[in-house]
Batch of 3 targets.
Target 1
Amino acid sequence: MASGDASTVKNARSLTDEGGSDVENAIPRDEGRTTEEKGSTRLRDLGMLMHPVRGPLVVVGLINVFSALIALVPYVAVAWLVQRLLDGTLHRDAMIVAVASILISLVLRQLMYMGSLGYAHIVDAKLRRSVRQRILDHMGEVPLGNIVSRSSGELRHLVVDDAAAIHTIVAHVVAEGSSAISGIVASTVLLFVASWQLAVGYALMFLLVAAVSKLLAPRHDAHTREDYAHAQSELAADAVELTEGIAEIKGYGMTGGFMQRFHRSLDRFSDASYRGTVAVARPMSLLTTVVLPGILLGPMLLLCWCSFTMQWSSIFGIAVFLFVGLGVPQTFFGSLSLVQNVTLGMEAAGRIVAFLDEDALREPANASPFGASDARSDIIFDHVSFGYDRSHDVLHDVSLRVPAGSRTALVGPSGSGKTTVTRLLARFWEVQRGHIRIGSRDISTISSKDLLAQVGFVFQDMMLASVSIRENIRFACPEASDEAVVEAAKKAHIHQRIMSLAHGYDTIIGSPEAQLSGGERQRLCIARVFLQNAPILVMDEPTASLDAENEALLDESFTEFSRQRTTITVAHRLSTIVNSDLILVLCDGKVTQQGSHQELVSQVGEYRSLWQAQMVKEVR
């Protein structure tokens, strides 16, 4: 991501200033579709996701087909030995050939199976890494609104859990599924060749069991799976919210309420899990009981006795039927354990592909360069309208001009659209009507990389990564020298504090040695902006977390830094922006007043009301 964009994703959910509560989750693309249509779509999505590894998986499947065929050799060899023994024709050479065939086939089968399974796991690891990288890359490409419309738990579920759900399909289903299917087909053919009468009786027996199991199977299993997936995502979101906000929750004594909501999500997840388990357990319990070798052997011996009495089958055919027939159900029901994982994998693939299908922020084709000299121009909003929810605009036909090199402040009540204006300037969202220009260039004709390189951001609650302090400051300018990093830290009045740490600029954020206050973390983030040295500076209450002494020092630094730059400050404390060249007052998504502090306080309007209210509050 470009500078500014990376730090914005984490903070965007707190932007209640511009009506973030209006951001609604995207409508699932499965809405209104039949179960068959959903299944077809998810199968297609899974195929698209696995397309890069289709070749290696075909190799894995072919190896396991051959290994399944080789696995039948010991059964045939033993049946042959039984027939020769009962015929009285068994001799030493025949015994050696049979035993050698059994040993070679067992070793070869195991080597092929384990080798292909190991290779499938390597392919799976590469695919999951690739999928996760694609998801993270796409997060940096789509408009910010596509990200903040999802909860932290949903994003985590997408990157971690959904990407992990395809593991079983790639690493096990292809290898074990192809082995099971080819083994069942080959075993069935062998049974019919050895004795078609026994094979028919065997098939009828299982058709009867399958019909009874079908009556016990749930009629709405697809809905059960969807309920489970939804409950799992909801539980993840509530868990993330609870852990991330535990300080505020405990501080305000709200532990009980949040824990109740978490427990409700946990109960819904447990209920969905129970219903899903019961739905599968009823038919499976009957089937697995019937095919237990000890139970299955009884009806099979009865079939063998009938066949032998009526001279339908040879000794070899009966031996093959007993040896192979006992193994087929175990192979079949062993493979059924993969079906649930396939279903979950298809649903996860559907969510991943749906996210990857979301339109990226449109980048202009053959965009001409946009440098610092271009950015030193007036910023113009020309009849701009925008809403997070298209049915409700946050900004209504806003037209404004920020003169180049000026210090401009945006003020107004909460929810008036102040922060939205700054986010639209950086194209974190696309305007729905109107245009935004820097000089003569519409920002939609500027590449995101060039635009964000010329706009520096200071948010109230900026992100610090778990890397060294030096690398955190370098986020804005990765190629900056150590001397430039130190100089930026000095301007942000954080250098002395950094040097007091055991490892100085090499101290890792989040380590026991890096116990920084909120104000100190804010100053580290401000040092990034000083290092970026962008010609346009956007600040959202940059000194909100600082004490009076450090606020005064930073105000001094910002005043010096703002010279020859266009500075836009979102302010709630009007005392911090009285020296601004231009103050724009927003109310209900419209610019209602503009001018200097002296001009606005002399007029009847929103600004004077806000100023008087704050002055009364400070006196008290």
Target 2
Amino acid sequence: MRNFVDNFVHQPGIYRDIMDGKVYQEHSTIITVGGYFPILLFWHLDGAPALKSKNMSLWPIQSFVAELPLKLRYSYKNILLSGLWYGKKKPNMQVFQESFVTQVMSLSDGFQVTGQNTPKFKLTINGQAADLVAKGPSLNFKLFSGKWGCSVCLHPGRRLPGRGNRRIYEYKSIVFPRRNHADSICYSQLAEETKQAAFGIMGTSPVHSILKIPDMLLLDYMHQVLEGEYTRRLSKWLARTCPSEIEISEADQGEISQKLRSLILPHDFKRKFRPVEEFHKWKASEKQVLFLHAGLPILKPYLPAEHFYHHSLLVSAIRMLCEDEITDHDIDIADAMLATYTRLLPALFSETECTYNSHALAHLPEQVRAHGPLILHSTFVFEAMLAHLKRLFHGSRGIPDQICRKLGTTQHASQQIRMDVQDSSTAMEFTTKLMAAPKFSTVLNLENGVCFVPPFKQEIPYIAFPIEGFFPDTQELTTCQRMVKDGQVYHGLNYVYKKNSGSYLVQFEFQHHRPGFGEIQYFINHRNKDYGVVNILRNTGFNICSIGLAAAKDPVLIEFLSSGVLGSHFTGVERTQNFKVIPCDKIAARVTFVRSDDAGVDGYVSAVLKSYQHD
């Protein structure tokens, strides 16, 4: 953790990690100047049914430490369980959160690990992530269906006539005031005294003392985009209940399911697509892959042009806010796209589609400035941990005790094993070697952080076409089928165990600042230099929105299309018989490939991100 923080370089205006966010930078600077090492937590509160046979639920308080490297930050072993409630009813949030808040405030004064040569630490909260149902009771705010139900701004919403309490949040050209912490505390005290809600705040809450409103109240990308707005759009199209009368027939749904089954995804995308006829059963990780990497090319033939452009606004903007590296300029473009998306909702669909989830999209760009890429502070990791907690008990008695005991045992097993064998040097050596074993037993470390994975062979795989840039001298040349770079594993096309995975599809740096794409055939070590032999996929220069569609009507949409930013993360490619030797340091990312019937392209490729929180 110390090495990661010391080596981390923050560049103003560029967001690669949570630690680039404005909130983290402000807190860590204050703590560091005071002579302490910062520990900043993102914490999560949510509930889930514990037993099918009884109306019992679990409500854990979980958190992760922002200063850990990505591979460790979201690891099961490093998710902190700070509170646990089990019962028939929802917990009393005042009581349940009080102990957590007390501990956080105590540690925020500074502490040091006893008996360890470590610096002085100071802990504080960087943000709270929760779905809308849990966020309201936790903060003592009204739910999104109530007046002033937004936790970020003072948009009052408008109640629709009729039965129930349906509230819409229409797009307005005026900007509604953003909440601020001082006013929110005053409103909470006023509501507590008068027993009447004030601007959506129903009273005080213990967490008001550790959360700065609204900067630390995170809108969750998983719940509000993937499970919210995106699911609402697709569900209505598939169920043929869309207000715009868009219908995807059963025959078309069968075609879409067939296309999904034929998709080739990287080997570490564990969850494969189910038929769209079962879309209501899909997990959020399935929706994420469809949303980011396949949805636009697959849905393009089935949507009217204006509706496809509108859907592309949502996908393109959120993709920009999830990138490995985001600039202030990217955030401004995404902000404009999301504003256009919400503005066009009533005209293309109906005013009933102006839900809170669609309104909340407008706050996501500013959240990226405050906390870094959306995908790094989503609740995927917490939802996965919640599912794991439910597997740690049997029967219906002593459930909290079972969970805490088994979780402590599994998370701290390595430390316990070392303590048990410390009296035997032989056993200690064996245990240390076993637990420190890398993912690959032996690798060949080359330049620029590139590693080749054995087996290494002298023979060169046969390719029927000339290879541009191949080496005339093959005496000092060996080949292999796997490479590790920047924590990502790449396969050659001839890798024996690749099965249906597509980790051989790559993006690389090409001439004239235009990215190149191709299929890796195999990797070469030539005089300790690393290369890949790539079958080139020609970059046509088209993106998913630039061909095969009728002209847009909205002037802002026309501007996005003319600038080339709408749908830009799906690039059209053509297959070729050109093969080329590419230095491995030019390989930038893996890509997904979706076949297409559009004229002039064989399909569309989309770069795979370097970090996901798969459940």
Target 3
Amino acid sequence: MTLSEQQIAALVQDFAKKYKGWAGKSKSRPMDWITKDPADGSSLYPEYWPGYNYAVKQYKEIEVHTRQDVFPERLFAKRAPNQTEEQYKYLKGSYQAITVPEFEEFKNVISRIYGEQLWSVQVPAIGTEGETYQEYITEQMYRVRNLEQWFKANMPSLKIKDPNGLIVVDAEYSTEYDDNGDEVYSSERPMPYPEYYPSPRVVARKLGEYYMVISYDKSMVEYNGTMKKEGIVLEIYTSTQYISIKQVGKQIDYKFGQPEIILHTAGTCPVWVIGGSPVIIDDEMVFNSPFYTAVPLLNLVLLDSSYLNASKATCAYPHEVSIGIPCDFKDTQGNTCSNGVIFDRMSGNERQCAACNGTGLRSRMGPTGKLLVNPGTDLSPSRDAEIRPPYLAFVAPPTETLSFLRSEIIAHTNKARQILHIGETEAKEEGLTAAGSMNRQRSVHAFLKPNSEQIFHIMEGVYNAVGNIRYPGEFTSVNFTYPQSFDEMRPSDYLVTIGESIKLGVPPSVVFHQVYHYLRSLAFTDEKTTRFYQLIVEADQLLMLSQNDIISRINSGIVEKWQDVLHQSAPQLIMELMRLHVPTDVAPEFFDLPMSDQIAALESLAKSKLAEIGDPVQQIQAAILATGGAA
């Protein structure tokens, strides 16, 4: 779609009208992240497009669970019953974002789609040496350097935080001056790069056709008689145009200059909505984050944890109860304290006694912190004699409220974690069955598959748009292979499955497959550790056998004793081989040897160890004979 100047002007005028009316009400701007939302739930911003406020409200509700520095004003706006202003200030001052770890763990779940060997991309050989497409997207990309790493670093969190945000392929165009001294675009290749715009900045859109955003850039405008770089810059993206419109004149007038238009060669509108579960609002498609379902529970966790902290400050510590004596303070005019109040006979006014702070009693604590009790005498009896010990006590308030809040926090957190497919703690999952692990695996797969499809669809589109913009007429397309399976199972899931498989007598070849994946789940990020375990899997022929089976087979002569040595001591033997290895040009490290050579070296070392320690059965027999057969 190509927008005419009239269509561009209409979009800008509509935005300016809505923005000016809203800004006049002293509302916070859409690009201000920390915003005090109205407590009554009314619309926070103009409805720039159907569903805009829904999208922004979702963004802000999720944001408080993803950042440590954002206080959930809207969540705490409605006070709890009996809550004072002082208590509210304490809640705000002591607030801790304790749900951020759930966000981080959930992000790790989404990140599984980028597992090695789960997906691939083939790129065309386009460009000249030193500026090929492959070199550009891996080493030279403007602003981000490596396109794949940008996606891996950003998309999992953006998928959670902002399903209605945009991924845009923008471009930097070089300029030069012509013979007339006018600035024109040079013939150098454009430098396309990915850009993210959060949903509050998306102020106009027609899905798949055009999108208008509030840019991160600013324009020069007049503010209180001086020029300041505080004006709004709007960017519009279509299938053929990059359009930039800058605010001009006085800031409060919201006037915009003529559009600056650059024609691009992306071949499509280079904008993608991050996406999620679709929701229709007034015939407009809006998206829900996969994290959004758990937000109500996590909100309760934030509230309860804040109330717990406040409650601990007021009722978790014991209160001192001790004996006091009537205050007998007398001021310079001779006015005395009576039940904490001093009556001024000259003026007829009353004031609080400063000596006892209006309590009418003075402390009986001595200078060393001891409570002083007056025993009295026969001539001057004391009422202290009527007091029975203890003279000093500490009263602890009931803690049922604290225990209740703590149990609520745990319950809501666990429920949210189940919704987010991150489960409870490992300690609480020890009782899982293999069937339970498989059900969880299916659930995680069903969750990851559509989110993976959406993310890789955006990646494929961005890769193609970058190529078409930088190499117009030369670029063909990239070939993406999307993930079809994921590493859904955790180490604990594999152990449960392996244990039950062995109990049920599942064929060793099947158990071997499970053990192999278990080892990979422990070491998939460390190449050396992966190769370490790979050698054990390849060389240990007894890996699938129980110790009783091994002993039985040794006694039957089916298994040789050196194989048991290898089975029992493989890690130590491999580490010894690594230390003894002599580097060569072909194999600088032990693991650079061919696998067959590694296995042969390991078997040889196991045999030599057996020769050193001898036959353990013969050693036992010799020991018995040496003691004359005594037990």
